[in-house]
Known about the structure:
Elements: H1 2-24, H2 29-42, H3 51-70, H4 77-115, H5 128-145
Helix pairs in contact: 1-2, 1-4, 1-5, 2-4, 3-4, 4-5
Amino acid sequence: MVEIGMKAAMGVMLFACGIQDIYKKKITLWMVAAGAVFLGICVPFLTSFSLWDRLGGIAVGVGVVLISIATAGKIGLGDGLILCVTGLGLGFWGNMELFAIALFAAAVISIILLVLRIADRKKSIPFVPFLVIGYIVLLVATKKAG
């Protein structure tokens, strides 16, 4: 029951942040913080991942935050913070899968936009909606596998 609540809360946070990212190209920190607090409360009641696996999931997001800082914001800081929160809920490998699916979806859409000449290579696109797509893919894949 707690796991369903955690998955739903993560989905709501991702969806809300995705909408904000599309329209404002920014996400509010309080939404990410609220998701982190809720997931932090749920973690002691979940046995699906070890503490080390969850810390590894957070490390994926920390890596993206560090890349954001190193590239002076070419990659959004909010994207890394959201990956820190999803890492808390998904663990290391789940968060890596989420990130890989989101990167693949973003690459496909970017190629389509380039081919159709809707955007050039300097155009930035919001990344959080691709994290939402990745999360939906993960939910469907785990539902079919389980």
